[in-house]
Amino acid sequence: MNFDGVTLFGGFGIRAFDSEVWFINNSTMDGAEGHGIRAEDTELHVINSTIRNSGNRGVIMIGGSLNFSGSTSEDNGGNGVELRSGARGSLNGNNSDNVIERNANGVVVVTNAVAAIFGENLIQDNRGSGVQVTAGGWASIFSQSIEIGLRRVLITRNRFTGLFVSADAGASVSGGETEISDNNAGGVFVGSVSRLQFSGPNNTIKNNGGFGVEAQWNSAVFLGSTAITGNADGGALIIRGAVSQFFGDISGNGGPSISCDETALVTGDLTGIKNIDCRRIERETGPPRGGTFHAPDGP
């Protein structure tokens, strides 16, 4: 099924409930009463198209696969792009920008769905989180330099957190140059037995309200080559059995660089990181004894 150069106003949007391959190219869905596009167990390509002003989600995939490339989902009553029930999706911004803005949440990955968000993706001004991964979902986020230049993921100015990962879910941020900034309630939240890994050079979590990174409820966080700076309440909050490993600059935040409760564990290269308020620190390098962190009991 092909839609090319089509404009739809109002109505029920597009519904794809069969196993065909659907292409929506250079088209606009504006003001659908429910979802802009709902697809179930099918292969859907949304290319250079716009979904806006839907009463519910912009795009929802239930199973099946999604290629969302050079497209916009904005001003929808529900989430901008949602993958659920084992759906597989790519938000491909390598050739043209994707924009996900002013929705309930920007991108939602839930119930064992998997998303790859790569290239130039602007996820901003959503009423909840920029990217939300829960209930066994997994998201891979990566920026990269290609022939036309740097193509990066920017998650910014969302009213809740930039990246929210919880309920046995996971996410990886790789490739370098990804930025999570100016989100109202914090940069990154990881909880409820979930995992998060940052790798690659020059990732930044900055200028968020709340903490740059908050990890709790037995979650695990690895932050490599990631700068955490300018966040209102502090760099990182590690509590309730969470484990975190840091390899990057944490400075210039409104509270401690790293703060913990007695159940949390912090490890990694803490060299040069000041104002650490944690009892359980396992490290080969880090601030000298007698610094501003709480040393473990014993010699």
Description:
With about 300 residues, the protein is mainly β. About 0% of the residues lie in helices and about 50% in strands. It has no helices and 36 strands. The chain has strands at about 1-5, 5-10, 15, 20-25, 30, 35-40, 45, 50, 60, 65-70, 70-75, 80-85, 90-100, 105-110, 115-125, 130-135, 140, 145, 150, 155, 165, 170-175, 180, 190, 195-200, 205, 210-215, 220-225, 225-230, 235-240, 245, 250, 260, 265-270, 275, 280-285. The strands form 3 sheets. It has a 22-stranded parallel sheet that branches. A hairpin with a 2-residue loop joins strand 18 and strand 19. Mean pLDDT is about 90; it is low at about 290-299.
Strand content: over 45%
Total DSSP helices: 0
Shape: elongated
What's the gyration radius in Å? 20 Å
**Which consecutive residue ranges, at least 5 long each, have pLDDT under 50?**
288-299
- Major sheet, described briefly? 22 strands, parallel
Summarize the structure.
With 299 residues, the chain is mostly beta strands.
Give a topology summary.
Layout: E1 2-4, E2 7-9, E3 14-16, E4 21-25, E5 28-30, E6 37-40, E7 43-47, E8 50-52, E9 59-62, E10 65-69, E11 72-74, E12 81-84, E13 88-101, E14 107-109, E15 114-124, E16 131-134, E17 138-142, E18 144-146, E19 149-151, E20 153-156, E21 163-166, E22 170-174, E23 179-181, E24 188-190, E25 195-198, E26 203-206, E27 211-215, E28 220-224, E29 226-229, E30 234-238, E31 243-247, E32 250-251, E33 258-260, E34 265-269, E35 276-277, E36 281-285
Parallel strand pairs: 1-4, 2-5, 3-6, 4-7, 5-8, 6-9, 7-10, 8-11, 9-12, 10-13, 11-13, 12-14, 13-15, 14-16, 15-17, 15-20, 16-21, 17-22, 20-23, 21-24, 22-25, 23-26, 24-27, 25-28, 26-29, 27-30, 28-31, 29-32, 30-33, 31-34, 33-35, 34-36
Antiparallel strand pairs: 18-19
